[in-house]
Design brief:
single chain; six-stranded antiparallel beta sheet; alpha+beta
């Protein structure tokens, strides 16, 4: 019995330096993100990849995509254009009836009289870079409907998402926003398809995401100004004070030349829009700092 006590004592003494050292270690990325989210009345999903680094939070939770699904729409339209040999310079006539009121639409605001002639490139820029809801729904119709967009993205080998409604349908019933969903990892996989391939198919989309003007207070705010960021945001209205979704997905070009993919989804937030944005920026900042510390 005495020998057992001595053995336990020696074992404890041996471990003590390790315990003290571990207690002084910098917090892990997961711990730092836990600290950011502590006390926040929201559900947050995160997926990040850069080289051999990866991090995921709430991997299997379904988050409303909101306007992030405009990336999916643009991919399908670009694929159709490539298959038919249609140029981005092709002019599309947009009738006044296509420019719905009471929805976010810089295109409608710029051309309030309607009957607009605009190139496909211009229409896509409005949808992606400026998150124009009317432009998005016009592109969805050109793509053959939202079901065709869903099927196309699945054909790329991506699952863990679903698309059922266009912007107009979600605007008429906000609960439908939950039907257009994705897991964080599925969105990161899609971003890698867009930005990893050398094929020119998605080159216009990459440029448009780099020119995004929405969400300057989200991932962009958490990343050093010297690092290029291409991203797409999404944001909903509120039901009884609860925000359905507040999102940003991005690729950050690190000094090493590697792409750092960051997806941050928020759903059912009782916090303010400013707090939501600050959370997204803070999570992105921790991810970029982690990747930098690893020399990636």
């Amino acid at each position: 019995m005495i020998n057992l006590i001595r053995l336990f004592f020696l074992f404890a003494v041996t471990l003590l330096p390790c315990r003290l050292w571990c207690a002084g270690m910098p917090a892990s990325l997961a711990e730092r993100i836990d600290s950011i989210l502590s006390g926040r009345r929201m559900t947050v999903g995160v997926s990040a990849e850069c080289g051999d680094f990866s991090y995921v939070r709430n991997a299997r939770v379904r988050f409303p995509l909101m306007s992030v699904f405009k990336v999916h729409v643009a991919m399908k339209v670009l694929a159709d254009m490539s298959a038919s040999g249609t140029s981005l310079d092709t002019v599309v006539h947009v009738e006044r009836a296509m420019l719905r009121e009471n929805t976010y639409s810089p295109l409608r605001d710029a051309r309030p009289s309607g009957d607009v002639d605009i190139t496909l490139a211009g229409l896509m820029r409005y949808s992606v870079a400026e998150s124009d809801n009317n432009a998005c729904d016009i592109l969805i119709r050109m793509a053959g409907g939202i079901g065709q967009v869903d099927r196309y993205v699945r054909s790329l080998g991506v699952d863990g998402f679903r698309l059922m409604h266009d912007e107009d349908a979600m605007h008429r019933d906000i609960t439908r926003c939950y039907d257009n969903w994705s897991t964080p990892e599925a969105m990161t996989r899609l971003m890698k398809i867009i930005f990893e391939g050398s094929a020119p198919l998605y080159a216009p989309l990459r440029s448009m995401m780099a020119a995004t003007v929405t969400g300057a207070d989200k991932i962009r705010a958490g990343v050093p100004e010297s690092l290029p960021v291409a991203h797409k945001t999404g944001s909903s209205d509120r039901m009884a004070g609860i925000k359905t979704g507040d999102n940003d997905v991005a690729v950050v070009r690190m000094p090493s030349g590697r792409n750092c993919y960051i997806t941050v989804f928020i759903k059912d937030s009782a916090e303010t829009d400013a707090v939501n944005a600050a959370v997204i920026a803070a999570v992105a900042r921790e991810i970029v700092e982690e990747v930098t510390a690893r020399g990636l």
